[in-house]
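Q: Is it fine to ask for two folds in a single conversation?
A: Yes, each is treated on its own. Send the first.
Q: Here.
A: Result:
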Amino acid sequence: MNADVGEGSDDAPLYEVVSSVNIACGAHAGDDESMAGAIEHAVKRTISIGAHPGYPDRENMGRKPLDMHRTELRVSIRDQVARLRRIAARWSASITHVKPHGALYNEAAVDPWLATTVADAIGSLKPKPRLIALSGSWLAAAGRSGSLMVADEGFADRRYKKNGTLAPRDTPDALITDPASSAAQALAIARGLPIEPVDGSSVTIHASSICVPRRGLRPRLVPTSQEPS
């Protein structure tokens, strides 16, 4: 299980239940201090550290698409990861994976051109990190085409459309706010069982990693070591 951290909220409970974190790299949120704090928490708990680069748009927290030239976007992603790597070096820690944030993640999931740009940026990093991408997305496909190791991601607290993409945040009931319902969806995804989308009868999400919510998190409702995660 993974979680997005370093975006200005209290992330402490998340470190108790996840095996990896995706740390905001200063473009959409975060700064050197928040990155250092997140890395220190992860190192103390032997949690895998990942970069969470987004569009450079702090005003909208990276949740609105930006029209960026391919070269500019590629440089931005590389620079964000490099910034996190420099800070991680203080603890002799490695950045094991990259998960794009917000609009960049969602757009790359459905836009093959953008997916290739993001995958190329990540693939150009040395050493080459793993890519976390929405299960069944163009980004996951582009990562594999670019010889990246890819972790297909599912979400505990996001509703899906019947085509396997995430329901937009402005869609009614796009977010699952009840912890028990969120845990139930996470378990269904982990077991390969169908879930109910917002626009159809069922959809099955094949994921090797599940993003868990900060909102209303209750560790006792998260799958235990006896359950698939």
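Q: Second one now.
A: Result:
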Amino acid sequence: MARNVKLEYPNRDKASSKLMRVLVIVALLISSALILIVSIRGWHLMQDAKTLNIVFVALNVIFVIQLLRWSRGVLPMSAGLAAFVAIFSGVSVRSWYERDAPGYADAALSADLGFLTILIFGMQLVIIVLAIAAFTQNWQVEVERRQRDDAGGDTDRRRGDAVTA
């Protein structure tokens, strides 16, 4: 009898849920791309943040994969990671612009990387807002639907109600 039960997720069928999921995924991908660009272009100028940047990008990609599977649990983690990255990017903006002076190696590159770091900071704020909004949509709500069995039993019953023939 249990094999005739099908789980449905009505909140995942809403257009607002689908849109919010896509927006969070796109924001995470843009954030990853920006972090990757700053890491690659400023590799020789960075001191200790190289490994952390790779970890941030890897975690964002893992979050995207989980969001493609409708996993609601990664939304608070992505907001938390975005807050962590926002702190690092907010602090590091000043250091990029301090290198934008005569006598420093790649001064023009430092200004470009400073601007990209500002974009990273802004994108983290967007991720936090989107992840919190998506979390409130209750993607995890399940509804049980009974399928028609061979004995001619009833269909489309909710929440495990008894089916009478």
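Q: Anything structural to flag on that second result?
A: Two points. Helices lie at 15-41, 50-68, 74-98, 107-135. The longest helix spans residues 107-135.
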